[in-house]
Write a structure and sequence with these properties.
Blueprint lengths: L3 H8 L17 H25 L8 H14 L4 H8 L4 H21 L3
């Protein structure tokens, strides 16, 4: 398995980010917004392709990956405060709502099997 150092050495620049998506061209709010939108779309397209190649029957997106990350942490016993910090939420209440909304969807799907 490749370590994060491989990517850090290969892709990081003076910004300190491992996968920098911005450069000096992205110097206005409009350009920043457009760049983020374009990069997010490309990432989601790539995740869909990965899911297809791996025969995963899920509409895989960054949103799903983020929920999965948070849920795995929760089920591993990580505190909500740590998960909140990892997700960049302003409050634990936001994180709790975030985690609860996902849990409700899982329960709804499970209940469908009973009907």
């Amino acid at each position: 398995m490749t370590s994060i150092n491989f990517y850090k050495t290969k892709y990081s620049d003076s910004s300190g980010y491992i996968f920098p998506i911005m450069n000096s061209f992205h110097n206005t709010p409009e350009r920043i917004k457009n760049r983020i939108h374009k990069t997010l779309k490309q990432t989601n397209d790539d995740l869909k392709e990965i899911a297809k190649l791996a025969n995963i029957d899920v509409n895989l997106t960054t949103y799903v990956a983020r929920h999965t990350y948070a849920t795995v942490l929760k089920h591993s016993g990580v505190s909500t405060s740590i998960i909140s910090e990892a997700l960049g939420h302003d409050s634990e209440k936001t994180t709790q709502i975030y985690l609860d909304s996902f849990e409700n969807k899982v329960l709804d799907e499970a209940n469908k099997n009973l009907l």
